[in-house]
Amino acid sequence: MNGKKILLTDDEPNILRVVTARLVSQGYQVMTAADGEEALAKARSEKPDLMLLDVLLPHIDGYKVCETIKGDSDLGHIPVILFSAKTQTIDRQRGKEAGADAYIAKPFQPDQLLETIKNLLKGSRHG
Questions:
Q1: Which helix (H) or strand (E) segment is 20 a member of?
Q2: Could you tell me the CA-to-CA distances from 29 to 7, 11, 66, 90, 120 in Å, in that order?
Q3: Among 51, 52, 56, 87, which is least packed, fewest CB within 10 Å?
Q4: 87 contacts: CB under 8 Å, gap ≥ 6
Q5: pLDDT tens digit string along 53-81?
Q6: Distance CA 25, CA 42 (A)
Q7: Residue-range domain boundaries for the chain
Q8: Going by CATH, does the domain composed of 5-120 fall within 3.30.479.30?
Q9: What is the Cα 12 distance to its own chain's centre?
Q10: pTM for the whole thing?
């Protein structure tokens, strides 16, 4: 379909499996990472069209990964969606401060996630 590359990062294998299957069924190419360090390395090497990041990750949390991506001149244009069970206003505010383009609460509605991805990719002028 659209062939856009999405980097999905979560430390829960079940979430990686379910979300990957859903995204692939929509025509996306999906790469996965299980922690923040791996997410940064793959973002630099693969240059995804969009990143989907869990907040609570081993080694480097999703907020820090997002800040690092957004502060990088080569990667800063990549839309980042943070998704987390942390849904308090302060968590969402922290996501916004980190530069996230969207923040989705877990458990999430797959259709809401797909709609957010589609809108961010449509708005992205790079790639």
A1: helix 13-25
A2: 9, 19, 20, 32, 16
A3: 87
A4: 105
A5: 999 999 999 999 999 999 999 999 999 99
A6: 22
A7: 5-120
A8: no
A9: 14
A10: 0.93
